[in-house]
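# nightly structure sweep
# worker-07 picked up a monomer target from the shared queue
# config: single-sequence mode, recycle default, output format = structure tokens
# input follows
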Amino acid sequence: MLANPEFIVYCGPMFSSKTSSLLTTLEKYKYQHKKIEIFKPNIDDRYSVSDVVTHGGRSIPAVCVKTGAEILEYLTSLENEPQVVAVDEAFMIPGAAETLIWLYTYGFTIVVSSLEMSSSGKTFHEIEKMLPWATQVHKCTAVCTICGRDAHFTHKKQMGGEEIEVGGSELYEPRCAQHFPELFQHIVKAPK
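# output follows
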């Protein structure tokens, strides 16, 4: 555990280099000789079943979990606990926020990469819970596939399906506010 832990969150739409930023941060901790454990949701098998992999092909071995409780179970089973706990795609792991906040309050540095909003414009509860605890929040942007401007939203090419549906460029693309129609359909209500 660290005397002055950090809680770092990289968030933004699909294809905004959130996972790349997470891996770069973990490299820094590696060079500082910090012990690191990285977790990923077991449902995210886009590029690898057992590694966190960027869209560009960078990878690192990870522990696959279904819930935040499994993160804690795994950590308590270790002989030497890590100083840094990282989670990729945290929005896909129910209970991740509660576990990571608890770990942070006990002196673990936390590094997270995640979408914060679904393609239907709904915020993910796990990220909503984490953000107030974050010591650093990095809003990552992608490039809008329609106009080339900064993209802050994820558009789902095929509507329907589940709110959390694992996929890559075959299913999702980044969009700016102008080209994200979901932004204005039901999310923003006029003040009374």
